Amino acid sequence: MEIPSKYKASTVESKWYDYWLKHNYFHSEPDQREPYTIVIPPPNVTGVLHMGHMLNNTIQDVLIRRARLQGKNACWVPGTDHASIATEAKVVAKLREQGIDKNDLSREEFLKHAWDWTDEYGGVILEQLKKLGCSCDWDRTKFTMDDDMSESVIKVFVDLYNKGQIYRGYRMVNWDPEAQTTLSDEEVIHEERTDKLYYVKYQIEGENEFVTIATTRPETILGDTAVCINPNDERFKHLKGKKVIVPICNRIVPIIEDDYVDVEFGTGCLKVTPAHDVNDKDIGDRHNLEIVDVLNPDGTLNSYGLHHEGKDRVAARMDVAKELDEQGILVKTENITHNVGTSERTKAVIEPRLSDQWFLKMEELAKPAIKAVLEDEEVKLFPKRFNNTYRHWMENIRDWNISRQLRWGQQIPAYFYGDGKEDFVVAETSEKALDLAIQKTGRADLKISDLTQESDVLDTWFSSWLWPMSVFDGIRNPENEDIKYYYPTNDLVTGPDILFFWVARMIVSGYEYKGERPFENVYLTGLVRDKQRRKMSKSLGNSPDALKLIDTYGADGVRVGLLLSSAAGNDLMFDEELCNQGKSFANKIWNAFRLVKGWEVKDIPQPQSSQLSIEWFESKFQKALSEIEDHYSKYRLSDVLMTTYKLIWDDFCSWLLEMIKPGYQEPIDSKTHKSVVEIFENNLKVLHPFMPFLTEEIWQLMTERTPEEALIISKYPEKEAFNKQLISDFEMVKEVISGIRTIRKEKNISFKDSVELSVLNKEGLDEKYNSVISKMGNISELKIVDEPIEGALTFRVKSNEYFIPISGAINVEEEIKKLTEELNYTEGFLKSVRGKLSNERFVNNAPDAVVASERKKEADALAKIETIKASLKSLK
């Protein structure tokens, strides 16, 4: 078979991915082997592949492919998350384009549109992951809104409610006016902003006197139900028991006293708006204040806004401020820098809002999860520094607001049968709910049609926190074969930004429903940033098209580019040139393959140089393999790749192949060829998790293979003892060869011309290596001498001195001039170094490492001067 001169990733990648799918290599079923399981962090069903997905899924694919090569039963479960807020927003936007208002549709009609949208666009990201080479078990693909997954979620909700862990409460919550739903505290991002602080005068009832309050939100003045002062504030003793008139709406409200008021902030008088601030709500509860909500769910003012009704809150703020100014009661404005809560999903500014919501008590549930990570280390976070973040979140955990005012999601299984707040039952089905309602009320005449199901859906995270169990049907059927075999899973790869959202909650649910951890190790990737350290985003325009990168550099090139500088937990400064480096690496390996494949093989004696070179590389490979396994154990995948990269590029391609390469148009001996093919194949196995397409292509072209012999399911190399002395000796051999090459290049001695080499072998380097040195340096004769040779070119390796007779091609005068200039420079450099070392203050005060560095410079300069002088002596 003719091997193409260039590696073409586009044709190779589709060919081998189809081949892997055809032969079902990705699929797993329980058997007698050790399982290795990863569950994918399910991307949003709305998503398309971006750099973060590529990094995260490349890492997972590396781990799963390695496990497969190790003979484990590797199972990587893929899937997507229904992403309630994001998906509903997409569907609403599409309906709007069609002239349809979501509110004009019944729940069933809206859900049909949502499912149509999901069916059309929902699988895009999973198809894109295939382009990257991800070897997921696609037969096991799950979606958090699948019937069995939803059934599991509802079952857990009912169970936790029956245990008293879930309750319904009228509480101040985070309200997203754009998505028109509540959010949990963790979904609110606090951003520092500069806003106006407005100072407004409130008239005291029945007097021509005023108190001044300061607020950043004058539109909420219309919801004020009190003005509050600190009881210990001497400035306002005369106000006790009085009332004020709220501007614009002219509501008469009391002046109350509460220790909450900070006498140092603003004016010392606080407007109290219980419907629009969590702290005001607490004050209102203590003083039995009226609650006046001035906002609609979409953030516009309601009828309490009077003539400002219908205005957006931001526009109303400006208009109310203008009206206050016109009335002569806006004293002044000034800038204030403060933290403002925004929605993680929509970026809208969050409104505190009083609402009936469903909550999950977390304090007791969290205890086993805290112990598992921070005490017993049953679950290990990589890097370990994230334990501190985990501790902070989990030890300060609050009840989880799990209800969302959306239609897309699992509908909360609470059924109302009356008008009272407690007139409801919780059950998995409406039939079971009816039975419970009859038992609770004693009303035998109740029918299902008398029940009204809660319209809210559950927070998306409430489905994904069950992911490692629910993908194996472990909630509905806790003793099924899959959950018993695959659970707990092994590794989880995700970003630190969802350490609490998802990771911690999965650990909580794992201990609650299986009594054990959901996974053993959590590898936390960093964020992908650009070269300026900015987070990649569409708005900044600094995020490259993931698929275009694959088209340009090949999937293998992109995978290498991403992982070359992506240490666990550290942000990746992405540079497209890294992908080009990955592509160049693929081409280097391809050319090495063409070289080996192109040699004529004959049954002739093996040269000693080839035998030694093979022995050296086999030890070098084992040393690298030992380092690689150590890096894997610490989840330092960037270091795994770099070790593999250097092994193949430097030691294999640049050195071994040159050492064993036969002369021009000469054959290679069969023993060496067989060994180098085996070495090449071992290199491919180690590299395969990172560059699956290239390695499978070369593996299959190396020799004819059956489907059972594919690289993807071959046997990973086993660790063996290696010869440390041999590796050390060869480092010196390589330095000698480099020295010969340097002299040839500098002195313009053709590499085609053989030269003699003599050595003062003070290091005692074994003479068996002479065959390698002679071949690589084109040395006609290599002699051991007892004293320096005059009239020869000289170089040093450690304490050994090497001599090459002067060729007639050298211009002696030019060489003397050049060496003299080099000698003068080196002697000047030595003088400056010794000047430092003779300075007692420097030696006594500088760090030990700095002083040691200067002493090494002195020793190196002395050795170089000695060598230059010897060369000059030989030329004169």
Which term fits the overall shape?
elongated
**Got a strand count?**
31
Radius of gyration: 37 Å
Q: DSSP helix count?
A: 26
| Helical amount | 40-55%
Structural commentary:
By secondary structure, the chain is an alpha/beta fold. Among the domains are: 193-348, Isoleucyl-tRNA Synthetase, domain 2 (Alpha-Beta Complex), CATH 3.90.740; 546-722, Isoleucyl-tRNA Synthetase, Domain 1 (Orthogonal Bundle), CATH 1.10.730.10; 752-875, Valyl-tRNA synthetase, C-terminal domain (Helix Hairpins). Helices cover 44% and strands 17% of the residues. The chain has 26 helices and 31 strands. The strands form ten sheets. Strands 7, 8, 9, 10, 11, 12 and 13 form a seven-stranded mixed beta sheet that branches. Strands 6-5-14-16 form a four-stranded antiparallel beta sheet. Strand 28, helix 23 and strand 29 (779-784) form a beta-alpha-beta unit. Helix 9 crosses helix 15 (499-513) and helix 17 packs parallel to helix 19 (637-660). The model has no long low-confidence stretch (mean pLDDT 91).
What order do the helices and strands come in, and which of them pair?
Blueprint: H1 9-22, E1 35-39, H2 51-69, E2 73-77, E3 79-80, H3 84-97, H4 107-121, H5 124-132, E4 142-143, H6 147-162, E5 166-176, E6 181-183, E7 188-204, E8 210-215, E9 226-229, E10 243-245, E11 252-257, E12 269-272, H7 278-287, H8 313-326, E13 330-343, E14 351-360, H9 363-374, E15 380-382, H10 386-395, E16 400-401, E17 403-404, E18 414-416, E19 424-426, H11 430-441, E20 452-453, E21 457-458, H12 461-464, H13 467-470, H14 481-486, E22 489-494, H15 499-513, E23 519-524, E24 528-529, H16 546-563, E25 572-573, H17 576-598, E26 601-602, H18 608-633, H19 637-660, E27 668-669, H20 670-687, H21 692-702, H22 724-746, E28 755-760, H23 770-777, E29 779-784, E30 792-797, E31 800-805, H24 812-837, H25 840-845, H26 848-875
Parallel strand pairs: 1-2, 3-4, 9-11, 15-23, 22-23, 24-25, 26-27, 28-29
Antiparallel strand pairs: 5-6, 5-14, 7-8, 7-10, 7-13, 9-12, 10-11, 14-16, 17-21, 18-19, 18-20, 28-31, 30-31
Helix pairs in contact: 1-21, 2-16, 3-4, 9-10, 9-15, 16-17, 17-19, 18-19, 18-20, 18-22, 18-23, 19-20, 20-21, 22-23, 24-26
